Fold:
Amino acid sequence: MAHQAALRVGASVSWSTSESLPSSAADELRRSEKHDAASSAICASQTVLYSTVAKLIVATCLFAGSALTANAFDLSPKGTRYDRDAVKAWAPSWLDGILSSLADKGLPRFKQSVHEEITHRAYDCNYEGLGICSNPDADYATPYIIAGVRWNDDPPFQMKSDQAKGTSCKTTYADGRPMTIRFITQPRCWGELFLAAEKQIKATPEKTFDAANQSALPLRSHFGDLQFIHSMASANDEDPVETRRKILSWAEFTWGVVRGDYELGTWLKDVKVPVIEQFFGTSGWRVQELFTLGDPSLRAHLGDIAFGSLLHMVEDSFAAGHVDRMEPANGDKCAGSQHRAPGPIQEFHSYTHQDSAKHADADSRMAFVNNRLTPDVVDVGRTLVALRKAKADWSEVGPYLECVYQLTPTVRKATAGNF
Structure:
């Protein structure tokens, strides 16, 4: 209607301004002015559309700002340039495509690229302040390592149509192929699922998101049985020895992928690592489905993806909302090595009863900057990068990570901590 009204107004103005002109000139001007009026009307119509979309973006930012507070050190919602290129090629609908393409302008206002910055610094980015090291596309860590760092918070997943009822989630393409969901491709869907899960877990702490009920991987990693990939306990009162066991087991698996012991076609049921047997043994997946579902562009870089996931987990262990660490003792070394020992762990926290706002404060860039004790999270990351470069075997890497996750003699069972 607005478009038609604008056309009518435009036509009226066109005729009144050309009445005194010769016939041929008047006709030409009328055609030109009609074209201009139509263009203006289209612009007006598009403005209405963009205004509507902008409101949706704001709404998306609001729910994402609330939902994403459960993450460890913040991540940039815009992803990397490879994420954005993939969205352009595979956006499941015009609306989700617009939401994703505009995420670069709206979503970073409430989230920061802390994980990306820590990782780039582990690869010797030494610029101070914001801008270079915090840029997800900085040329220090490879984009595939950054993709792996992002995997822990945003692992790809698929849903059946009945699981998506009542949501905006799209589960299949027009030809029936299953659609892979990530935050960057379906932000509304991702946010809806996340908010619903957070609401459930806060209202009913005994609610489980695990392999048995086929929960989506992001829900399992943030609220369920996979919280160890964020260096957290899965529930209050979890034994810290058990939490540490799962963390080190995941580290052993990812290091095996880094070294090529496990390939894309390796069935997870055949991986004789306890954490994989326990949490993925009945999944029916290969390593390919776990790390690169729906994204063939990542598959030639599987080692980088797995290494990024390991880095994310270790980085999270220095986030106060996740782990209560003591300060490192000056000069302490890990047993049998020259690697400096970080502060030992007094408690792995559980998210279930935490205040999401307090948790978010502990994940901010300010929290990272204010917690640069030697060795800090960047120092530990640099050691792991060096070990990978040296092609170290797990027999060397394992003891170092045992040192990184050393428990105090008085280590406590999991609680919400002061969060």
